[in-house]
């Protein structure tokens, strides 16, 4: 087994001429990541993050970096990750552990999305991001979720059989079999590249009042239904959690609508898209489990979260659609 800290430090010295002190981030990620400090100022502002990709191969990382380069010049009011070229110009270095990149530091902290004011700011940032992504060609993003790429987040018989063999609870297995297979086609809804993973863990902010300073982690960005972006944000932001979910979900939608308008058909599909997203996280986590990156318990937790979402949506779907329609109409800046 490689000594990751030593290997990454040597990689930084060799490719970026940085003598570094590395520290682990406070929160877990889907990739191996370390905060990079200049060894001469180990308590000063970090230089960046060194990231070992576990979910993307070299070509997909290159596409992510091309997408980030386009967005850096799009005039967004917040920063996106900026891969720092190595001495030879490469932004991706192949290693035994996987593709590695050095990402410049973005100031800010994780926003508190329990507050409607922060959710509105987050929604506004997401709408502006999607407006900037609207003209990006599919081939410029890491994934195209309208193609067989979708199977990477799918639940099929082979994956379920593997979970059965590993000892997944029979009740969860039966539920998965009832919910397996690809999502239905939705011809006629707008398609574009979207972020695909918008939530508090992928935002940086200052304030209060909340100002979004950065949107990060574009590794699963890809062509998809435009409407999926809001559904993912509703699911991952916590907007649907707790007794104040009505105020929070409307705030997120209002912020989004200040930058981008959705069609009524896209709003009507939100409950089904939210459910499909939760199933997609089960499929994605299963893929990571099969690759040895996650545990069976991680998959089981995602299944329970999806089942909880299904029960919540059965009670609240119609009211949610009505609130989103009103929230998207409460705009200050069309």
Automatic annotation (TrEMBL):
The keyword Phosphoprotein does not apply. SUPFAM superfamilies: Protein kinase-like (PK-like). Keywords: Kinase, Transferase. It comes from Microlunatus parietis. Its EC number is 2.7.1.39. Pfam families: APH (PF01636). One of its GO terms (molecular function) is homoserine kinase activity. Residues 57-248 form the Aminoglycoside phosphotransferase domain. Gene3D superfamilies: 3.90.1200.10. This is Homoserine kinase type II. The keyword Lipid metabolism does not apply. InterPro entries: Aminoglycoside_PTrfase, Kinase-like_dom_sf.
